[in-house]
# Entry
Amino acid sequence: MDQTPVYELVSLDKSRPSYEKLSDSNKFVNKMKEITKEYLNYNKNQINKELHPIYYFNNQQETEEYILYHDDLIPLLKVAPKIIDKYFPEKEQLILEYVPDSEFDYGELFLYIKTNCTADEAITNMKNINQDLFYSEYSKALPKVIIYVKFS
# Structure
């Protein structure tokens, strides 16, 4: 009995030509590379068009790469400024920074809110921001970003 792998087209008609394994196909590999490139370019364009006007990027390349790798952050980072504005209307700047961890092979993304409010106001406002983001539709991405206040 012919033991045809599942990922090949199984045909009872032996007169038809056999199909090559999809994973062995150069066409398939090239198509997957093209799709991946288009996908990354689309997300890169979103970062440039929608996030750069809002945020200042520290260590820009690493920060962008982290966001590209965790692309579910893009919608969260687009909506976060609206929520932050509710509690920090007089903020000076929003800063994104990827900070590598020397002990591990990964790091963390920080969103800094630069402001001149008091520490007590900042604590209250941060609780409100975290609560609003936690109950938003983008809450699954929330553990991938740490939000801090930077005092000017």
User: Anything to note?
Assistant: The chain has four helices and four strands.
